[in-house]
Amino acid sequence: MRVAPLPFDKAALEKMLPALRKQLLASRVPGGYWAGELSSSALSTATAICALALVDKNLYEPLIHRGLAWLARNCNADGGWGDTVLSASNISTTALCWAAFGLSADLAGPFRDVLARTEGWLTQRAGRLEPEGLAKAIMGRYGQDKTFSSPILTNCALAGRLGEGREAWRWVSPLPFELAALPQRWYKWLHLPVVSYALPALIAVGLVQHHHCPALNPLKRWLRHFSKRRTLRILAQIQPASGGFLEATPLTSFVVMSLAACGYRNHQVVSRGVTFLTASVRGDGSWPIDTNLSTWVTTLSVNALAANREFLELLTAKERDQIGQWLLGQQYSQEHPYTLADPGGWAWTDLAGGVPDADDTAGVLLALRNLGQTDGRVIQAVRAGVNWLMGLQNRDGGLPTFCKGWGSLPFDRSSPDITAHGLLALSAWLQELPLDLKPRAQIFLRKGIDYLAKVQRKDGSWVPLWFGNQAVAGEVNPTYGTSRVLRALQELAKVPFPGVSQIMVSGIQWLLSARNSDGGWGGAAGVPSSIEETALAVDALAGIWDSKVSRSRTLGNDSRGHVESLIDPEALQAGVFAGVSWLIKRTEGGKRMDPSPIGCYFAKLWYFERLYPLIFTVAALEKVQNVSAAHMISRYS
Fold first, then answer.
1. Domains in the chain and their CATH numbers?
2. What is the pLDDT of residues 143-172, one digit of tens each?
3. Distance (Å, rounded) from C-alpha 293 to C-alpha 347?
């Protein structure tokens, strides 16, 4: 029979995938796992400069000057800064960079032209350069969440950018640091104005605000004065050995500058924080947003490669065991002092500043499953991890990032992307769970599916928490969210769970409709296509095609047949082929894997990871190759 040409260059795909696979395997560090490389950050660099300048400008002059020079080199043409070198200018990062130049005015002489352009950008964006306009613009970016607006405005006040004396602090919302003196287990009931991970900022920023602008109410002023020693002890107790809170430069810098500016330059928290900052600066004078995402990128890499049906031949038994043992070594076996998280979870990094979270715990559980190891230690770790995930589930059925029941602020509320990841991980181990856990696991899965149905948008998409797109209205990324949810629903549909097919169909339809005319995907329809988002969409659609979900012609009560009856197979196929063609063309056959700012960290804080485009593309093309070999090509014969 005549075989019609495929809409993409199959030979190019067959050449590209092995090369990318080899590149991903070669990206491991000597320990056998992946560490990745986070983008340098103007926001991190600016806050680190301010912290060091407030501790001892003379001592740290070389680092400060190199940081200022990096900022000057990477200022956008419009005079502002974005969080990464690929980001559009935003008010928060530009204000912080302006503050950094202000605190180091005696070193900023060579950069006067940059500073003039920056002040022009701020004047245009905020309406005026006076404190009121700047403060309102920054507060407007974050709304009721004080997690970032209060530290940013505190930084500006310390740099003299909001006026002089007490007048400067009238624009900074005070943080009730005295609440941190209460038992930690009470925090989730206190409705704190910051999210759970920002406790260090609550304490340190609150202390410096109290120092420079004490409350007029005498009772509140006395209470805050009385709480200083206890909250400082708590801050010291939750600081990791590395000195970096969450291994994050901005959070650590806000703590260091705040304590240094209220008389605690010699405090152990400041000393440790400075040690972290001086150790994490890069050779070019910049700082990254976080030290690394080693656990996260390792699990992403393992799970991407595992889409290859010959996965166990890609890595030797010794290599798989090395990765597995490394992952097992990252599991928390004791209550975490920072969030009081129970034992059993994993963080995004192997470093001391990590905190166990739902997304990384799910990723590790899937990686352990894919590595094919089922010895006693693995099974014990999996049971603890599954228990940890199930214990994190909120009343609404969804999973938050760190802490159950903290509230509605970002990173504490349930989110569909993290929930879907947790459901996928638990379903992968469902059959191996002991009998006493299975009923609870079934309830967990059912509640999670119900949550996904409730939060699905009317157009069929899901909006994620941790990944955004700077070009989408609201800086959300429904392409990421929808592709991740569909990935989980593919597996849950095999059980099957009632109701999965209905939400799955509308999600597939949205993802297909969001494809751009060039064949790729951005964060939403009409947004410029990126390697990461196109690969994620192709991964989800190819997985659906490859499974019996889309090929089943059985109707009746089987949810898989219902999906087939509502999804046009040709449209599904066309979407996959178009996405693959775009990836081949955009990457020049895998030679250019340029990252995009897809990651959102803290509150509207962006990064990109060097390994993301490579990992996501390998995962997608492995799926496509499976489908090509098993099904797609046969449709043309």
1. 1-30+459-637 (no CATH), 41-287 (1.50.10.20), 292-455 (1.50.10.20)
2. 777 778 899 999 999 999 999 888 899 888
3. 9
